[in-house]
Amino acid sequence: MRSTLRLVFILAGALVSICFLAFGLLLAYESVDKEDKFFVRDAAVLDPLYLISLESWTQRVSDLHEPTGVAAHRLKPASGAVFGYRFFSSGDVLTVDDERYKKLTVWYSGGIPKSLEEITLGDTTRALVIYSRGGSAWPESGCSGFVNSGLLRIDNNGARATIGVVGVFEPRGNRYESSSCKAEHLEFTFEASEVQFAQLTPWLGREGMHPYNETYRH
């Protein structure tokens, strides 16, 4: 009888240790910042003028339908190619609502170049670069705008493409003034892998049912 109880205690202790270990590993995973780097053929930004139209938006509907700058990164099937960078930070796993995001969306009318191509930013009919950042729990207060007066570099390496963006970030369509949302020099370099349009999630570029679907990485 004693040996049986002892075995039960040993197994229970082992199970508790495994649970604590699993919980610790989960916390460690959640605390690591996540990045998604991709490109999509035959795609474009859903509404290139969305951020500009936000500047004249005055009607409040509801939190579900309230327009937010992060929606400027929604995509649609079209001519050209889209290169995307998405960053998500869970913040402190024991703190509520401190998650943060960054999104960079690049549309190039020429599609996927055969090799290296450099494009001067400014002509939005040829290339468009949109950038957003903010707190995931507060999408209406995010900072969004265009990257202009710079250079876009696309280097096709076959299965992957290396994207470089250097330019001036110009905020547009932000309805809440913030000292942290201002024009600034911006540089991004990332290596993207191809995904199919059907594989896009609201975090990557599809329209979400709620803005949180687009500011949180699921």
How would you describe the overall organization of this protein?
- The protein has 218 residues and is α+β, with helices and mostly antiparallel strands.
- It has 2 domains: 1-32; 33-215, no CATH class.
- It is built from 3 helices and 8 strands; from the N terminus they run αβαβββββββα.
- The protein has helices at 2-31, 50-54, 212-215, and strands spanning 34-45, 75-89, 100-108, 116-120, 127-135, 143-156, 160-171, 184-194.
- A 7-stranded mixed beta barrel has the order 1-2-3-5-6-7-8.
- It starts with a helix and ends with a helix.
- Residues 16-29 have low confidence and may be disordered.
The helix count comes to 3
**Mean pLDDT figure:** 86
User: CA-to-CA gap between the ends?
Assistant: 49 Å
Number of domains: 2
| Contiguous uncertain segments of 5+ residues | 16-29
Portion in strands: 35-45%
What is the number of beta strands?
Answer: 8
- Shape, per Cα inertia axes: globular
Spatial order of the strands forming the largest sheet: 1-2-3-5-6-7-8
Share of residues in helices: 10-25%
Structural class by SSE content: alpha+beta
| Main sheet summary | 7 strands, mixed, barrel
Q: Give me the strand/helix succession.
A: HEHEEEEEEEH
The radius of gyration over CA amounts to 22 Å
Main traits of this protein?
218 residues, alpha+beta, seven-stranded mixed β-barrel, 3 helices, 40% strand
